[in-house]
Amino acid sequence: MRLILAASALAFALPLSALAAGSDSSSPPTPTDTTKTCKGGMVFDDKSGKCVAPKDSRLDDDDRYDAVREFAYAGQYRHALAALDAMSDQQDDRVYTYRGFIARKSGDVEAGMTYYQAALQINPDNLLVRSYMGQAFVEMGLLPEASAQLTEIRRRGGRSSWPEFALRSAIEQGKGFSY
Description:
Layout: H1 2-17, H2 33-36, E1 43-45, E2 50-52, H3 61-73, H4 77-85, H5 93-105, H6 109-122, H7 127-139, H8 143-155, H9 162-173
Antiparallel strand pairs: 1-2
Helix pairs in contact: 3-4, 4-5, 5-6, 5-7, 6-7, 7-8, 7-9, 8-9
């Protein structure tokens, strides 16, 4: 019986470990040298083995997005914004998504929602922004609006994804995630 319970728990945990905001993992971003070693908002560049400024040409936007996510999870919103400012395309829906997340987590929910709307105008299939927007609705006590975003995530192919998991959990628990 214990073996069956353990196998069931493992089967449930595995899909969740494959899911997260900005990535496909339900766990927080693992701290890297960006937040463990680098100081002052510098980003660790794996290729050179050095801490570099977010605008450094050795970094590409994916490196910057990873840094944004790590900084945001660590509560280093100023550094996350500096990495966002270094993105090559400021009109990218991912930039608006993270600006919205940072604004919301910094207490400016109205600005966060404005950024989320901008991201959705560019890419209505951005499941992550729908999850973050839904989590904002949960935090404001607007559960029907949160549920509508969950329905949209599922309708747009996001079943069993991090955005679906995070929003569903936020609705069930009554609070959003920090990553």
